[in-house]
Amino acid sequence: MKGVFKVAMSLVVLAAVVQFMAMPSEAISCGQVEGSLAPCLQYLLGGGTPSGSCCTGVKTLNGMLYSQLDRQTACNCLKSAAQRNPSIKPDAAASLPGKCGVSLPVPISPTTNCNAIP
Hints:
mainly alpha, about 120 residues, globular
């Protein structure tokens, strides 16, 4: 009987974990977006090759973009950051995800229409 109880409890715990993982999280914040890409500032200003920590940040950001709201929020954050810092090279920003081996669903540009992000 103890074995059946342990199996039943294990299934209950597993179901709770799956339920928790499936629950949508709160929308991403600009602090999270900018924090993820902070290691990329040198690359965005000067070009060249992004650092390993920069690419880790790009991959982290990509992993946080679960919903359309997340993608649109991240887009607006990136757009605002790009507008605040006109020294960012547009070609470096556009090529950053590809150089890190990521297909980021949000462009890094001061001119993106974020409402059109699916």
